[in-house]
């Protein structure tokens, strides 16, 4: 079955650090690259780290559930077990969470797990999971 895939390009201030984070820690296979950019396969999606240090600035945040959520972020919706495994991988690596893994809307429609991390260039990633995929857009 084919499915849409997204493509996302984002700035980094060190290509080697991007390779260690996305390729090493996240386990994203590397695709094409040049001196100032590198493609990664993020669970079947193409993300591209571009060397652009002047673009690596902290994003503004907004309050959500008592957390300051970075307004600019990207990430994935994972199966619950994959989400737990990835959170554990970050913990085992001694990685600091921006927002620790927690469950929102527990026992309610749209129950979801979420956590935020920051890559070495300051880009924020959110990894989420839902108890029931049919409720991803539940109001």
TrEMBL record:
Matching Pfam families, A to Z? Glyoxalase (PF00903)
> Which parts of the sequence belong to the VOC domain?
4-130
Report what the protein is called.
Answer: Glyoxalase
Q: Which SUPFAM superfamilies match?
A: Glyoxalase/Bleomycin resistance protein/Dihydroxybiphenyl dioxygenase (SSF54593)
* Xref: InterPro entries: Glyas_Bleomycin-R_OHBP_Dase, Glyas_Fos-R_dOase_dom, VOC_core
| The organism's place on the tree of life at top rank | Bacteria
